[in-house]
Amino acid sequence: MRNFAGFLAFLFLANLGFMGFGGERVSAAFVPTLSASVDRTEASVNGESMLRYYNGQRDFSFKFQVTRNLKSGYVATLSTETDETALMNETTGGSTKINSIDHAKNLNDFTENSWGYKIVGDDKYDSIPGISAPKTLISNSDYGWSNDEKKIQVGIKIGNNLDSGKYSNKLIFSVVSNSYEPRAIMAKGRDFNDKLASLDDNQRYYGSYRYKDFVHHIKRSESAPEESVQTKDISADDSDYPILAWYKPAENTVYFYSTEQKIFLNKDCSYMFVRFKNLTNIDFIKELDMTQVVDMGDMFSYMENIESLDLSFFDTKNVTNMSDMFGNSVKLSSINFGDFKTSNVTNMSRMFYGLSKVTNLDISMFDTSNVTNMSNMFSGMRGLTGLDLSNFNTSNTTSMNGMFYDVSNLNSLNLNNFDTSKVTDMFSMFSGMSKLNDLDISNFDTSMVTDMSQMFSGVSKMSSLNLSHFNTSKVKSMRYMFAYMNNLVNLNISTFDTSNVESTYGMFSYCYKITDLNLTHFNTSKVKEMGSMFSGMWELTNLNISSFNTSNAVDMSFMFSGAKKIVGLNLSHFDTLKVTNMNGMFENMEGLTELNISSFNTKNVEYMSSMFKGLKSLQNLDLSHFRTEKVTRMDSMFNGSNKIASLDLSSFNTEKVTYMSEMFRDMTNLVNLNISSFDTRNVTSMSRMFSYLSKLATLDLSNFNTSKVTDMSSMFSNMNSLTNLNIGSFDTSNVTNMREMFYYVNKLTSLDLSHFNTAKVTGSGMIAMFSGMNELKSLNVTSFDTSKITNMYNMFFGTYSLTELDLSSFDTSSAESVSSMFQIYTSDMDKDKLEKIYVSNDFNTAKITSYGSVFGNRKKLRGGNGSFLADSSAADLSWLRVDRPGVQGYFTRKP
Questions:
Q1: Fold of 7-177
Q2: What residues pair up with 8 in beta bridges, in sequence order?
Q3: In this structure, which of 178, 379, 447, 790 has its CB flanked by the most CB atoms within 10 Å?
Q4: Judging by DSSP bridges, how do beta strands 114-119 and 87-89 pair with one another?
Q5: Which string of DSSP letters, residue by residue, matches 765-777?
Q6: How confident is the model over 342-355, as pLDDT tens digits?
């Protein structure tokens, strides 16, 4: 055996082979360049110091870099200088050598005295290529500038039997530009669109787009335009020849011309014809070369008047994007695809979105094997009655979001061939398919799906749905999943794994016909949104949610709203510590007689609007454990719960509440109401707060702070049994609306509002304010500022028990209507006691246009001088003044 004690050399000489620029033309606009380099030109290994051991091996790397600015692209290759690929011993004249490995292998698997190379990142080394079979390192066909690099790694394995000497070879890197043919290239789609629009300076804008209403036709011209004609160059930046366009108003036609016979469409044709409202054909494209087109996104979207498209001549073999291609071209009813090639398309999202006139769509030629995005592909095709997708290959599709959304005329859909193994998004996939009777998706693989929200919402004809095969282990959202499936009776979701679900908001909402729902298998430990989950389930009688874990729930708004046939609901196991929203939680559960919410912790709840609204069968409600210190809204909280006779809210902390409108409205059986602890300092609305509490006789609101209230309209309206009302502390300085405030509070005999500040009440804010107060004998409104009131209609209508009325503070300078202001019913004329209406001055009638029956049926009313009409209903504007000698009126001047 011979010891190796020589010098091993690898000469990476920068013998870079450049083969011209293949015809690229040099101009001021574009100068082609191409350069290459290696970061080392020689590598050596001293055998004495580094490889003096048995089976010694070594590897090292260097960087190869290419910088270019080309239209055509280039190819970079690696080889030796000749077909000799071995490292030759220069000392012995080649009698011994280090051979190239003969096939791909790891460095550890090299035979002794062999070498190889690899691109850094590859798993294995490859054989050294000779000059007759070079290896491609980089191939770049893109237009323009780039800086590309590859790291090359050389590996060698030396045996101890190698003769000493200097072993060497040369590696050659060649960089060759691709051949190039000068071309006329159309501008990018969006630029083409903008440039044609700019041919008419009078066109309006729609967002960032100009209208192109003037363009009815686009045609190629065989001759150049005359010099006097205004033109636009619609060629691309990388075009070698200009393409001129001009407009002929008499023909509503845009013409274009190029000296080159062949014109290429740009690889980016996206938005090319968007919002060409009056363009009805695109036949001119037949004369253009489409072989370079890659992007057709939005190409024909929003073409409002086009009715048919013949695309049979389209060359789409290189197209990757067809998203929104025809979207919202609302009159388009027919598309001829001919032999459309779609094998390279990856994006078909919203491709046919909103094509409501298309009834039949033949896409049997589509190759969808590379499509990853089919979201909203057929969405809004409301006229579609048939759709054959038997040829669809969906093996690479990841999104089917809204794929058939609102395809509302389709009654059957065969998806037996669909491969959904890679799909992650099924949001609204079938939503709005209101005529779909049956759907067999037993072949669906949903193991990767994370979003099923609204998946079947609005599929209103389907009565049965079996999803027992669904794998939902990765699903995070089931929001509105089955909402508005109005005819659904049988739903099999017995195998659902909901362990990762975070939202079940509205999941079963308005599934009207489901009577029984057993969800004991549901794992809701991660669910944050439970709002509206069972809302509108009108026929539901049996609901088993005993296993529900609500420890992470934040939203329970309208959770059971409208489930009107449920009689008993035990939620004693509910953990509500994190819940912030309970708006409408039990709203309109009309049949509910038993409600167990004894475990509810409401310390973090902010919203309780309509929480117990419409509980028409519930008689008892104990809320003594409720914590309401964070609640801001209590409007309609108990509205319409008309079987409850007693309600103790003395434990309520309402200091943050801003809305109390309709809070107790229509509690028609309520006799006892304890709100003595109410802090209303931040309340802005009390509209209809107590309206229709028809059995409540006493209401003490002396603790109320109303300094921020702006709306008191109908606040006490129709409290038919109220005889005692304490509102002496009311601050009305910010109130703008008092309309019908005391409407038909017809048992109250005295009302002192002398402390009321009405300076901000405006417009119709006092209409019917005291209307129907039949038993009222004393009314003090002497502080009223009515200077901003325009409508006083029915303000004191039906107040037949009053004997006098002091309106001395009234200012009617803004009033436009006083119709029926003091009127009573004809049937009440015998009960009428009103004799005097006191004023400071005549009513200002300058703006009054409506005054019919202003004093209607007031038979006892007399002016200060005794004037009256036999038929008070006949009084005109002239009677709205102080009665005095020679001037008749129904008013008496205030002493």
A1: Immunoglobulin-like (2.60.40)
A2: 45, 167
A3: 379
A4: unpaired
A5: TTTTTTTT-TT--
A6: 999 999 999 999 99
